[in-house]
Amino acid sequence: MRLSVAAVAASCATAHAFVNTSPFILFSTSKITTSLSDELHSSKTVQADLDSIISSCPTERYLLVSQPNLNVANLAFSTAAPKLQAALAAPEVQGRLTISEVAGSPIDLHTLSPRIRAACTAAGKPTVSVETLDLEALPASGGSFQHIVDVLRVSDEDLGLVLHQYAAAGDFTVLYTAGSRTATGGHIEGKPYEAEFRDTTHQELKRQLSSIARRANETDNRPLFEKYQFFTPGIFMVLVSLLILFSILSVGISALGSLEVPYGAFDKENGPAAQKKQQ
Questions:
Q1: pTM above 0.90, yes or no
Q2: Local structure of residue 104 (DSSP, 8 states)
Q3: CB distance 16 to 73 below 8 Å
Q4: Which position among 75, 102, 167, 223 has the lowest Cβ density within 10 Å, counted as fewest Cβ atoms?
């Protein structure tokens, strides 16, 4: 289903007719099969379809993104989530599922994580990476328009950074939904996000960064002349060579200075022409 955030928000004109609804977005680099359309569905229906999708463990990496109090009207802003829209339209994304309104209790992504691991283990992929990203909660009610836009913009920037890492690694599935509702907006307490990539490139980079940080924390308290070697063999050889060259130069200058030439040798009258005149 080639839909975008704008398509999800297309029904925002009727969004206020339904209470306790939230959008659901799923996109993956793997093709997915679903029977759901972009319309009102119950959370149980969406959960059943989601279980069917993850049962085959389509990818090696999963990012579960929740933003409490999110509704379809929030995504109706043209500048609400440009990074998310770009990720949905990326050419490497092969499967998309976008539902504008899911009625009932929001899907709990934290309980979904162990189910994904279990499904992938059963599918022969025990080393999958499943990460949960909790974005800042939107105002539940009474929030100003500008405040909502600001929260969405900051959240989209944070999400964009993580999506960039996943796009660079490839083979990923992203779920984005409202998560648990809160009475007031604000940050959700939880474990900070830290991407865990299991390929050797990222592991090597992590080891290098750890080594750099460890060296930066080490302090060498030795004396100056023990800490640094000022007269290395190379410097000593250069000094000896310079000493020999200066000795040769001084001998040459002394030899030139000891030459004695009589001034009469430069007198024209004492030359051969003067002798012929005298004859």
A1: no
A2: S
A3: yes
A4: 223
61 pairs with which residues across the strands? 129, 172
Of the candidates 67, 79, 92, the one whose C-alpha atom is nearest the C-alpha of residue 9 is 79
Indicate the SS3 state at residue 106. Answer: coil
What type of residue sits at position 90?
A: A
In sequence order, the 6+-apart residues with CB closer than 8 A to the CB of 193 are 131, 132, 133, 134, 162
Distance of CA 12 to the CA centre of its chain: 33
Backbone angles phi, psi at 48, to 5 degrees: -65, -40
Spatial distance between the Cα atoms of 155 and 149, rounded to a whole number of angstroms? 10
Q: How far apart are CA 184 and CA 138, in angstroms?
A: 8
Report pLDDT for 70: 85
Report residue 169 as tokens: 């690694």
Domain residues of the chain, as ranges?
5-200
- Range 70-86 average pLDDT: 79
Residue 4, token pair as written in the block: 């975008």
